[in-house]
Amino acid sequence: MTTFSILDLVRVRENGTPRLALDHARDLAAHAEDWGYERFWVAEHHNMQGVASAATSVVIGHIAAGTKHIRVGAGGIMLPNHAPMVIAEQFGTLAHLFPGRIDLGLGRAPGTDQTTAYALRRSFNNADNFPQDVLELQAYLSPGVEGQRIHAVPATGTEVPLWILGSSTFGAQLAAQLGLPFGFASHFAPDMLMQALDIYRSRFKPSAQLAKPHAMVGVNVIAAETDEEATFLATTQQMSFTNIFRGARGLSQPPIADIETYWSPMEKAQAMRMLQLSIIGSTETVRQGLNWLIRETGADELMIVSDVYDHDLRLRSFRLIAEAMGVLPAVAAAAD
């Protein structure tokens, strides 16, 4: 049975603040665990004024403290930006604070531009060391062995579950080789999705963490009362992607009535290629779209992005998604 999870962008919106974005993420997570979602992840981004999750482990602590049982984690930590020991220390600490609830998804991309990477005191060449860094991090999280001289205190023995994340076949191959769950970033880079899933499943080797492949697929979903309203709300994300191409990554903007007045034909083509795996519409439209995606990919889990400007409407979107897929518990449905 496919499970459903949330990737939150912790978007700072116009006339908002980073604190408001962080509190909205925590509030969404609290609702999500009542609505049947499996996990709630945030991602590492740097030098982006519209995203408040740069200090990812701190944000995870904030969210986990406001929830009770939903898994909380990174989707992901961009490991080339960090020493593996430091990440082990951070997530080992989280594992002690919130036992059995912390996930650690790992990405190979720097998640930023070259100038910002230098400001992080890291190099783009660090991506070449990604497989070795994953193994080093895994060792720090494993039980200690006799003669071990370096320990990532208090990470030793916490065995925080690792995930490999990616938007190409590289991550699929590594996840298969290491026997780790794999998440594909098809919510912004869908072109190689099916190829990556085939490679992951066909080459998977069981490990101590995972006996059989577990494939997570990222998807943009915006649910509303009608298809027309959902299409209107989706313009917030469409403008965000357009702004990326313009080199003007800013705050989240409210939706607009006519997106054609905002982007050029070339910008539209670029944005829609990246956003082609998007399901936008009423509850029934969302149900049909997600069922189709599950049939096509065989996904064990869907990681859902619902980039809606207004917080209350974003809550409604995730509630309608849960209703559409039958994961919303009856008690929660009655309460809402």
UniProtKB/TrEMBL annotation:
PANTHER family: LUCIFERASE-LIKE MONOOXYGENASE (PTHR30137). GO terms for molecular function: oxidoreductase activity, acting on paired donors, with incorporation or reduction of molecular oxygen. GO terms for cellular component: cytosol. It comes from Acidisoma silvae. To bacterial alkanal monooxygenase alpha and beta chains. Pfam families: Bac_luciferase (PF00296). This is Luciferase-like monooxygenase. Residues 3-300 form the Luciferase-like domain.
